[in-house]
Specification:
The protein is of the alpha+beta class. It has helices at residues 10-19, 26-34, 97-101, 146-159, 162-168, 193-196, 205-219, 271-274, 277-282; strands at 40-45, 52-58, 61-66, 120-122, 125-128, 133-135, 141-143, 171-179, 184-192, 223-224, 228-232, 235-243, 250-258, 263-270, 284-286. The chain is globular and about 40 Å long.
Length: 287
């Protein structure tokens, strides 16, 4: 059984990240996909600063990632970052490349056999009866129509490789807002974890976050804060801040909540779209 370099619905996430103001080079992503099988892996701890460094050899190429920020972008003393290799591999050890790809020729239906209920937008308010939350936009945030969301998703799916398309279809795009001033967005997305991560069993929020971190720290060179619990709409979410090249200033925030044994809700928001976290969080209410 080989370890996977995790990618959560890679193709769908590329589309979502681009819409939310993150730059993604699809040519580089194709290269990453062709070289992701790990042939050898070594991990060592530096005696001087405790940094954990993992070297991976894939398709004849060396790739090294470090859990410690470089000197050009020092982390603030108060920040605690997730270590992307050493601390996450054990948690995701049951996950395999074969599970990630599923059967590329099979159409995926993430809804049948579950208790999922689609959201609705009435009087400019997003309501998810399944998650029990609502959201009222503010400032320049405007809802995309469900027709636009489905059209965008269909176009993205047609451009994906078969295995990426299978992964993307394990997710439900339940709502999306665009900031008309910055062209960045907020998305509400449900992942059927029984389909997407079949060998993980009843997947936890922490395992879901770990899979996300392992995908994007590797693919986009991002850094993630350690999760913290926040209350949104009367329920508890795990919140993670995402950092780009500037390790002191987050660019994105992710909220994760396990709904039941089938689905995890992921709310993803570009900070350039929402303005600030406190304002955004105050607009998520109990449905």
């Amino acid at each position: 059984m080989k370890k996977a370099i995790i990618a959560i619905a890679l193709g769908a996430s590329v589309c979502s990240l681009a819409a939310c103001g993150k730059t993604v080079d699809t040519d580089n992503i194709r290269t990453e996909e062709t070289t992701k099988t790990v042939v050898t892996e070594t991990t060592e701890e530096n005696g001087t600063d405790g940094a954990v460094t993992t070297t991976k050899k894939a398709a004849g190429k060396d790739k090294t990632t470090s859990a410690v920020a470089d000197d050009k972008a020092p982390a603030p003393e108060s920040a605690a970052y997730i270590e992307t290799d050493a601390s996450l591999q054990a948690d995701m050890s049951a996950y395999t490349d074969e599970t990630a790809q599923g059967n590329p020729e099979t159409e995926v239906d993430p809804v049948t056999g579950t208790a999922f209920k689609a959201s609705r937008i009435e009087n400019d308010v997003y309501t998810s009866p399944y998650a029990g939350i609502s959201f009222r936009p503010y400032g320049s945030l405007k809802f995309k129509s469900f027709d636009d969301i489905h059209t965008q998703r269909g176009q993205a799916l047609r451009m994906m490789a078969a295995e990426d398309r299978w992964q993307a279809m394990c997710f439900i795009d339940d709502g999306e807002l665009i900031n008309t001033d910055t062209a960045t967005c907020v998305s509400f997305q449900f992942c059927n974890t029984k389909l997407r991560f079949a060998e993980m069993g009843d997947m936890s929020e922490s395992s879901y976050i770990n899979s996300y971190v392992m995908a994007y720290a590797d693919l986009l060179g991002q850094t993630f804060s350690t999760p913290e619990s926040v209350t949104l709409g009367g329920t508890t979410f795990q919140k993670v801040r995402v950092y780009g090249e500037d390790k002191n200033t987050p660019i994105h925030v992710i909220y994760v909540r396990k709904i039941d044994s089938d689905f995890i809700l992921e709310i993803s928001a570009s900070l350039s779209a929402i303005g600030d976290e406190a304002t955004f969080e105050s607009h998520i209410e109990t449905a």
